[in-house]
Amino acid sequence: MSGAAREEQADAENVRAMLADSGYSEKAIRYFLHKPYMGSLPDADQVSAMTGSCGDTMSICLKLEDGVIQDVRYEVLGCPGAIASAMAVVDLIKGKRIPDARSLNDGDVFRALESIPAQKHHCIQLAVKTLQKALDEYTQPVSP
Fold this sequence. Notes:
Layout: H1 3-22, H2 26-34, E1 46-51, E2 57-65, E3 68-77, H3 80-93, H4 98-102, H5 106-113, H6 121-139
Helix pairs in contact: 1-2, 2-3, 3-5, 3-6
């Protein structure tokens, strides 16, 4: 392993330890560190964005086919709680029909994350609200 790779691994372990000490579960930490669904979808059927009360901003891209969510990506400008929450939402809705995805709630995401600090629960709300906004805009497009 090169010196740079060792340094990067040590940095990730330091971040992991800080987040664990702050109350993040290992699952939430993995979502934050790996960001498996971060980015955009150039051929998205719906793109929506929201800014939370804390200033964190999320954009969600949905790719749907026959009412089923085929692919999802979030772009997040925010804290580890916001990033982990958005990544967990994707795992919970990908492959689901719109009504099933619409029924997702904050508790579902919290259970998927297993634990995040109490002061970061608003991040879960932002991820869910951003999804709901996108589904609403997709199913009820604004008239010109």
